[in-house]
Amino acid sequence: MRFIDGPLRWGIIGCGDVCEVKSGPAFSKVAQSSLVAVMRRDGDKAADFAKRHHVDTSYNDASELINDPQVNAIYIATPPSSHEAYALEAMKAGKPVYIEKPVSLNTASVQRMESASAALGIPVAVAHYRRALELFLRVRQLVNEGAIGKPSLIILNLLHPAKPGSAAENWRINPAVSGGGLLFDLAPHQLDIIYWIFGKPLSFKGNSIAQGKAHNASDVISLSMVLPENVFFQGLWSFNVAPSQRHDSCRMLGDKGSISFPFFSSFESAAVEITRGDQTTTEQFTFPANIQHPMIQQVTSYFRGQGENPCSLSEARDTLEIIENC
After folding, report:
1. In this structure, what CATH number is given to the domain that contains residue 231?
2. Does residue 18 surpass a pLDDT of 80?
3. For residue 269, what are the contacts with CB-CB under 8 A and spacing of at least 6?
4. For 150, which DSSP code?
5. Pick from 85, 196, 232, 323: CA 20 to 30 A from residue 150's CA?
6. In this structure, what CATH number is given to the domain that contains residue 119?
7. What is the pTM of this model?
8. pLDDT category, 216, cuts 50, 70, 90?
9. Which distant-in-sequence residues (6+ apart) come within 8 Å of 219 by Cβ?
10. 3-class secondary-structure state, position 16
11. Are 159 and 87 in a shared domain?
12. The pLDDT value given to residue 167
């Protein structure tokens, strides 16, 4: 792989809501890294983002940003339908790529990006940023250290009320743009953590329906998986419940106890509950102001040849394959 010798000078393609707080500011908070250019199809909004975040250059054309000689690394934060085209263009320009999740519309698209990365020798990382947060690092540590004994069962539930509006107003419920509704937007975070801790599933089976009929995407989904060491996973997602029934939980059970935690309850803090016998302890975790900051730090190190890839295209493809088959 061709890594960057020296500081990274980032360009963002798609400086929308995700970039405002979650990721954008972090690029200039990491050592050997700065944000030097942003792009959005609405040039006025791109210029406004640049002004508010003290970025020198803004564009309304992605190719201009990709070919800006001041930019040597690309962050793609557009909807998934455009990820592949921008990633291939950036790689052909010799610039490493950090891609938002879901990584693309389908696994065939990801395989094409993998082939290009290998052929061109350009590193690519995927923004499964929960891997770098202390809460999920702690959950992984507890499992690996045997805090709950031999793991046997994982039960995940995510219940959300239906989102108002049409597919034209909200790309996340337009399968042609998102890949397939809110499951494609939220489940990648959850399934990536399961994959990261327990390994690639040995088998999986999904089932889904469009219960609410508000749009073309499925809104109630179940998933069963057999993970390595015969750990069984059962997940249920519904994006069609009453607001009072909102729920977010993941429980990992072993022969000596259990670990429970949420995925999306807050962007500020969350707790992990560890139960052993009749004793339950709680550990509280505060998230960074820019929640992708720790992941961007790892990606920056990787692109400079100073660390491992924190989340590869092949890993993201494995979880996307599960989701697209639900």
Report:
1. 3.30.360.10
2. yes
3. 284, 285, 286, 287
4. S
5. 323
6. 3.40.50.720
7. 0.96
8. confident
9. 162, 181, 182, 209, 210, 211, 212, 238, 239, 240
10. coil
11. no
12. 59
